[in-house]
Specification:
The structure holds 2 protein chains of 2 kinds. Chain A is of the alpha/beta class. Chain A has 18 helices and 8 strands. Chain A is globular and about 70 Å long. Chain A starts with 15 loop residues before the first helix and ends in a 13-residue tail after the last helix. The chains are: A alpha/beta, B alpha/beta. The interface between A and B is large, with 90 and 99 residues.
């Protein structure tokens, strides 16, 4: 029998921190740009991958089992595409991939990546794991406490900027104002992080107010628009590469988009540590630990929400409230993948006026059979206005099919919007095209039949 | 002003013009054969000429293929479901629910009680395209198929999840001689099931139902089938084909001059942007060189004289074709025949054989060997001498052309076979069990859909400049990719080339899952009818980066291999058992289908009775209908597991009746929970063993059509329990399984862990019975008692901690003894098999794979092949935890890895993995299991299972495995190979 040490993959050593460039796949665009600054501050050399195109998926298909979920195919394909590009010194390049440690396939991405690297002829490339579950303890990539605090701050800032941008951009009078402001703040916050400031609870509180005030100052004209929430498997929810530019598409359909924040997922992961002990027994200290962490995060989140409300924005529900929403719909023990959080987010969206929801998942995503598609009927039964469409993403699911389904959802949404508008102000009439979900018209007149 | 609506669908184009009173003034319905742009322009010009005559009309476009067009010419686009809704609200306002089937889409619209629209997502099974495909398979037009279905006497079970599966169900039915009328009716039934299961997703279809779209308009049998399944009387209204167009017309509010619109569409084709591949040939010369190279791989042909002989006949009865080869003692070809089997191969073969007899009166037939799907049927009908599993037949033939062949790929009509050869034996087999994407029949169907002959269509692609990049996935996805490409202006030659390239990509990356050509081998023989298509051949060479051998008899290799096999087994002067000319003259075949009454499986049997009174029975899962004896399941641990589970019967209980669904993890935990609740004073009832009926009864509440079949079955079990007058149903959520210390963690998969949540959220049955689906952790026995006491308190009064403790202790004990019993029995079976010199197969899956509805009797099938069957959990405990290259964190999968490792240490033990379609975790486990086995020098066999009921492919797979194992064994004993055929076409040497 041929012997091979299956654990003999290259490890990311402490020394590599100085010598290696770490490549990171892109997911939540704003957040990751901020996190990059935090990692650089900690002494890592980091590059966030922006390469896309059909070869990314093709490489994924070539080196990963085709039935593996789409995010794994894309992330691994993106890495290999980058390594193939010749842009990187292969002896001084490392990869970073997240690992949740949950009961979902996603915990195995890192192993699939390592297998793929060997197959593709890059056995020397070390892979580091970004996880909070104590996996891969022998890695030289470890999150120190200051770095952790900075990452947390980056996620909060990212969530805030994303929410403000989404709520402002569709209504701005001058196209481009909002994005310019977001760009400004990304640079400013990155600068703070590099100077080791801006990430204490106190500093954040003040920063939140300043940021919100500046967005609120952008000249806008608020007209009724279709409001669409996006939930789903975390990668396809955020990554434009994964969801075929879903946010952009919805924007082109003249919708206001709401993507629940990334911090919710972090809090959900922390919550689950305690919840597992509560449900099945174990060290009580873990419950206390997770509660302490959550209450620290909540103290910041509270400020964030308050700042948004003060600026006239819709503030997302705090995690404390989210946690209560699934009662009677799904148990808080469903902790694989996005678990109960996804269901909670759908409910929160419906309750706060984002009743049109795209539930995005990779084709065949196991947790989403349960917490996404499996819960839609129940949510509809409780909230009859919920207009939810599940969309599957995979390498060959064509954009036209996905957009067609989304348009269908939007057609119903626009009709309702119109009905409401009619009830309120009879002057505003949408044309057939708007109702039918066609191209948005720039200067339409209410042409008679 | 006239109002016009244009509905540009995936296969047809429809136009309606309304007058001032909203009455239809003009209508057109035509197939566009994917010439969407041209047809649309033509139609608009006609409109201008015949109606508007220079005036403007109000115009709107709808339909799945209309979006791009509408955008480019500025005509408003109306989403097609929305258009339907508009039309229905206007024309049939009483409607509660609309079922609309189109070319590639299926939709259900609920209009009352909360408007909702459902469309088929990534799966186009059960749509018009699917029906067309099936009609093609039946050699009928859509109308003929409907007429035939009217005369149906019975229906067969045809998988409804995906058109591709259905196809692999239909083909064997035809090959086994089932009546076409029955098959046609079964296809309609499958469409109905697909629509209901895929789209209704738990919502009941009732009230006034409206049927729209082509298939429902043209087929009354389909409508009747829907009526029967739904228990309604639906209506197919006047103009049912035009509802989308009507809706568009009603909503048109912008006036256009149609001829202007037609003109502005000219620009549309100019901006062709789609992902493309490099052309296949850089120059004409390159093609000539390529063509000439492949001309060389040929078998010498000899004239088929009046009385030459002895000859050997090979017959390959494939899925869509019949191939027959006659060779002489030198393996030279005397005669070949290749034709479509027209659904029944026997009359064609009879005719061929008769012809051979007649034209060669002095012929000495030394052997007749059959192979392929119809191997058994043909062998029985004509008394052939040998039957050979098709994989081995192909290998035998390939060796003739390339003795050092190390990789063979055969792409046939709807099956694809690839095998790796190491040390002269088949070491790995890849079959496309669950998917026929990238096979010949797909290309054929597509060619027809586009209005071409398949050869003509293929030839178009040879010199395509920018072949469409269609990716490598399911046929269904390819359909929509093609649609998209057409939208983006791809021409037919580029589509043809793109389809051929995707055939190759499918084979390589989907079926074989190769990442580099080196991995597959460097001495490659390609065969099967599809490789006659030079585009496919070229694409394969380019993708592999190596020149390959395509024999001139690429489509006849199975038959040729069979003939060679017969030749190698024939002693000098041998005479075949083939029936005589006279018997052939009088040959007749009668086909009957009956339901077997031998056991509770009630298999649908197809009984062929031949003129000599002999019978050939197929469709059986065991030998009982053939031999009259019960299946020999002594050496089948799966059967023993079922027997063990059946022992847990309800006992009288003072606390009431509690039900447990026998699904997913309950197949293992039933002993635990049954004991637990019995001890607490409950009478514990389980749902019955799964059956087709049970599944269908629950299918309407399945919310996610891509979940695995074992999970979907849970809905049927809940339904069954709901009819049992119980006080509560117990089906807990379990994130964790018991820790068997074989892995890094001990999770359940997300579906097993949380499926009770889906049941609670989607099954209306539980409105009347409390469902206890709390989160429970049996992996911490001490905490379990406390936690469970608290949970039970919510539902029942007066169950105290100590009572729970006693019950839990008994439950853990029962579970331990159940598992010990399994292991003991496993060891017994292994010992007995060794005594009898039988092979031992570790049929590795999950506990729920013992469900006969899930495994389709594969366990018994293996036993019938003469091997003993044990389960993964009966041997996994013999291993210690070891390092795997993936995260080993699921209890069931840890067992799988351990079982694979154990197999590598046992010379007579091999592993066959059962994989449920849609099991996401198995995308990870299959590769790891394969690696463990290969490292230990073992073959890896994977069987993908779903709703699919046909065992034909599985059978081939298993027989190939056994043939390969035999070959390996022979070699290990150091005996010389039986036959060596040299490719210099000289005399064959027999070394014995």
């Amino acid at each position: 029998m041929e012997t091979r040490d299956v654990k003999a993959y290259p490890k990311f050593t402490k020394a590599m921190k100085a010598t290696h460039t770490i490549l990171i796949p892109n997911m939540a665009v704003l957040h990751f740009r901020l996190i990059k600054a935090a990692l650089e501050k900690a002494g890592y050399r980091v590059e966030i991958l922006g390469n896309c195109g059909s070869q990314v998926a093709q490489l994924g298909l070539k080196y990963v089992h085709n039935d593996t979920c789409y995010p794994a195919l894309l992330v691994i394909g993106q890495f290999l595409d980058a390594l193939n590009s010749g842009k990187y010194d292969l002896d001084h390049t490392a990869l970073l991939i997240s690992q949740t440690g949950g009961g979902c396939r996603a915990s195995n991405y890192i192993h699939l990546l390592r297998k793929a690297l060997v197959k593709a002829g890059y056995p020397q490339i070390p892979v580091a794991s970004l996880n909070f579950s104590g996996l891969e303890k022998d890695s030289g990539f470890q999150l120190s406490l200051p770095l952790l605090c900075q990452v947390v701050a980056c996620i909060f800032y990212g969530d805030l900027l994303m929410a403000l941008q989404n709520q402002t951009r569709p209504y701005e009078d001058k196209k481009g104002d909002t994005e310019a402001l977001t760009e400004h703040w990304i640079r400013t916050i990155s600068g703070w992080i590099m100077q080791n400031k801006g990430y204490s609870a106190h500093e954040m509180k003040h920063a939140f107010k300043r940021i919100v005030a500046q967005y609120a100052a952008i000249p806008v004209t608020r007209v009724p628009k279709v409001k669409v929430g996006i939930v789903g498997e975390i990668y396809v929810k955020y990554s434009p590469l994964g969801n075929n530019g879903l946010e952009e598409f919805l924007a082109s359909e003249d919708c206001e988009v709401n993507l629940p924040g990334l911090m919710g997922f972090v809090q959900y992961c922390i919550f689950n540590m305690g919840q597992t002990i509560r449900l099945y027994g174990g060290a009580h200290a873990e419950i206390l630990g997770s509660e302490a962490l959550l209450s620290w995060l909540d103290s910041i989140e509270k400020e964030l929400c308050a700042a948004m409300k003060a600026g006239g924005y819709h503030a997302p529900a705090r995690f404390k409230e989210l946690e209560k929403l699934p009662k009677g719909i799904i148990g808080l023990g469903a902790k694989m993948g996005e678990g109960w959080l996804l269901t909670a987010e759908m409910i929160e969206l419906v309750q706060s006026g984002y009743e049109n929801i795209v539930c995005a998942q990779p084709f065949g995503c196991l947790p989403n059979h349960i917490v996404g598609k499996g819960m839609i009927n129940k949510i509809r039964a409780l909230y009859p206005t919920a207009n939810i469409t599940p969309i599957d993403y995979d390498p060959s699911a064509t954009r036209v099919n996905q957009e067609n389904r989304i348009k269908l959802m939007l057609a119903v949404a626009k009709e309702r919007l119109n009905d409401r508008a009619k009830a309120k102000e009879p002057l505003l009439r949408l044309t057939a095209e708007d109702l039918g979900g066609g191209m948005p018209m720039l200067n339409h007149t209410a042409a008679g039949l | 002003m006239w109002k016009a609506g244009l509905d540009i669908g995936s296969t047809t184009i429809k136009c309606v013009v309304l007058d001032e009173q909203d009455q239809i003034a003009y209508q057109i319905y035509e197939r566009h054969y994917s010439h969407i742009l041209e047809k649309t322009q033509e139609l608009l010009r006609r409109l201008a000429a015949e109606f508007s005559k220079g005036e403007k009309v109000q115009l709107a476009i709808s339909g799945s293929a209309g979006m791009g067009l509408a955008q480019s010419c500025g005509v408003p686009f109306v989403q097609e479901v929305f258009a339907t809704r508009v039309a229905v609200k206007k024309l049939a306002p009483e409607t509660d629910c609309v079922i609309e089937l189109g070319g590639e889409d299926a939709k259900i619209l609920f209009l009352t009680g909360g408007t909702e629209v459902r469309m088929n997502g990534s799966c186009a099974g059960g749509t018009g395209a699917f029906i067309d495909q099936m009609a093609t398979l039946l050699k009928m037009s859509a109308e003929e198929m409907n007429l035939a279905a009217r005369k149906a006497r019975r229906t067969y079970t045809i998988a409804s999840r995906c058109g591709v599966f259905a196809k692999s169900d239909v083909q064997p039915l035809l090959n086994q001689g089932a009546r076409t009328g029955d098959v046609a009716a079964s296809i309609y039934k499958a469409v109905v099931n697909q629509t209901i299961a895929g789209l209704a997703q738990g919502r009941t279809i009732k009230g006034n139902v409206l049927y729209l779209g082509g298939p429902l308009t043209f087929s009354d049998v389909l409508r009747q089938s829907f009526d029967d399944s739904l228990g309604v009387t639906g209506v197919c209204p006047e103009n049912s084909l035009y509802y989308v167009a009507l809706g568009a017309a009603f909503y048109s509010d912008k006036a256009f001059d149609p001829s202007r619109v037609a003109e502005s569409l000219n620009q549309y084709s100019a901006g062709s942007t789609y992902a493309s591949e490099p052309p296949l040939f850089a120059s004409r010369e390159e093609y000539e060189e390529f063509h000439a190279r492949h001309q060389k791989a040929s078998v010498p042909c000899e004239p088929f004289g009046q009385d030459c002989g002895p000859v050997h006949i090979g017959i390959d009865s494939g899925s869509t074709t019949v191939k027959l080869v006659v060779i002489d003692q030198n393996a030279h070809i005397l005669y070949t025949n290749y034709q479509s089997n027209l659904g029944n191969p026997l009359p064609l073969i009879r005719e061929q054989l008769l012809n051979i007899y007649k034209t060669h009166p002095g012929l000495q037939v030394a052997s007749v060997t059959t192979t392929g799907y119809g191997e058994e049927l043909v062998k029985n009908a004509f008394h052939a001498d040998h039957g050979l599993v098709e994989t081995v037949a192909h290998f035998t033939a390939a060796k003739y052309f390339l003795p050092e062949v190390d990789f063979i790929i055969d792409i046939g009509g709807q099956d694809m076979k690839c095998f790796k050869i190491e040390d002269g034996a088949i070491s790995d087999i890849f079959l496309n069990e669950a998917c026929s994407s990238g096979c010949g029949s797909f290309l054929q169907t597509f060619a027809q859909a586009l209005g071409y002959d398949v050869k003509e269509f293929a030839a178009l692609g040879l010199f395509a400049k920018r072949p469409v990049d269609l990716g490598s996935r399911c046929t269904v996805f390819m359909n929509s990719s093609v649609k998209q490409a057409q939208k983006d202006g791809a021409t037919v030659d580029n589509i043809s080339a793109g389809l051929s390239i995707s055939v190759v990509k499918n084979a390589l990356y989907k079926v074989i899952r190769a990442s580099s050509p080196e991995e597959l081998g460097r001495n490659i023989v390609v065969q099967g009818g599809t490789f006659y298509n030079e585009v496919v051949l070229r694409a394969f060479e380019k993708e592999m980066g190596v020149n390959v051998i395509r024999p001139d008899i690429a489509g006849l290799m199975g038959a040729y291999g069979a003939a060679l096999h017969g030749r190698s087994l024939s002693e000098p002067g041998a005479k075949s058992t083939l029936i005589t000319q006279e018997e052939l003259e009088n040959f007749s075949q009668q086909v009957r289908s009956v339901k077997c009454g031998g056991c509770t499986n009630h298999c649908q049997l197809t009984v062929n009775t031949f003129s000599d009174g002999q019978k050939y029975i197929s469709g059986n899962r065991c030998d009982k209908p053939v031999t009259g004896k019960s299946a020999d399941n002594d050496l089948n641990l799966y059967e023993y597991k079922r027997q063990l589970l059946a022992r847990y019967k309800p006992q009288s209980g003072f606390r009431g009746n509690i039900g447990i669904p026998l699904c997913l993890n309950m197949y293992e935990l039933l002993p635990f929970w049954h004991t637990f609740f019995t001890r607490l004073g409950f009478s514990v009832h389980t749902s019955p063993m799964s059956s087709r009926g049970l599944y269908l009864a629950g299918q309407a509440t399945i919310p996610s059509d891509t979940a695995c079949f074992p999970a979907k079955l849970a809905h049927g079990h809940i339904k069954a329990l709901s009819q049992m007058k119980l006080d509560a149903i117990f089906y807990p959520c379990m994130t964790y399984n018991l820790d068997e210390h074989l892995g890094d963690n001990h999770y359940n998969c997300p579906v097993v862990a949380y499926y009770p949540e889906v049941i609670a959220g989607n099954c209306p049955e539980i409105e009347h019975i409390p469902l206890i689906y709390d989160y429970v952790g049996i992996h911490r026995p001490a905490d379990f008692v406390t936690k469970m006491t608290a949970i039970l308190k919510k539902y029942f009064k007066g169950i105290g901690w100590s009572e729970v403790k006693t019950a839990a202790d008994a439950a853990y004990k029962e579970y331990a003894s159940h598992m010990a019993d399994l292991r003991r029995k496993g060891s017994e079976i292994i010992a007995q098999a060794r005594k009898e010199g039988k092979r031992i197969i570790v049929l590795a899956g999950r506990p729920y794979h013992v469900d006969p509805e899930v495994n389709h009797g594969i366990d018994s099938l293996i036993c019938r092949c003469g091997a003993a069957v044990v389960s993964e959990d009966s041997v996994s405990w013999l291993e210690q935890k070891f390092d795997t290259s993936v995260l080993n964190q699921w209890t069931y999968h840890s067992r799988l890895y351990a079982a694979a490792k154990y197999c590598t240490e046992q010379p007579d033990m091999d592993l066959v993995q059962l994989v449920s379609f849609g099991c996401g975790l198995d995308a990870i486990t299959t590769d790891e299991t394969r690696e463990i086995l290969h490292r230990g020098g073992k073959l890896y066999t994977q069987l993908k299972i779903d709703e699919i009921t046909n065992l034909g492919a599985v059978n081939i797979r298993l027989r190939s495995l056994f043939a390969a194992l035999e070959e390996k064994k022979r070699q290990n004993k150091g005996r010389p190979r039986l036959t060596v055929i040299r490719n210099d076409h000289s005399e064959t040497k027999k070394e014995r």
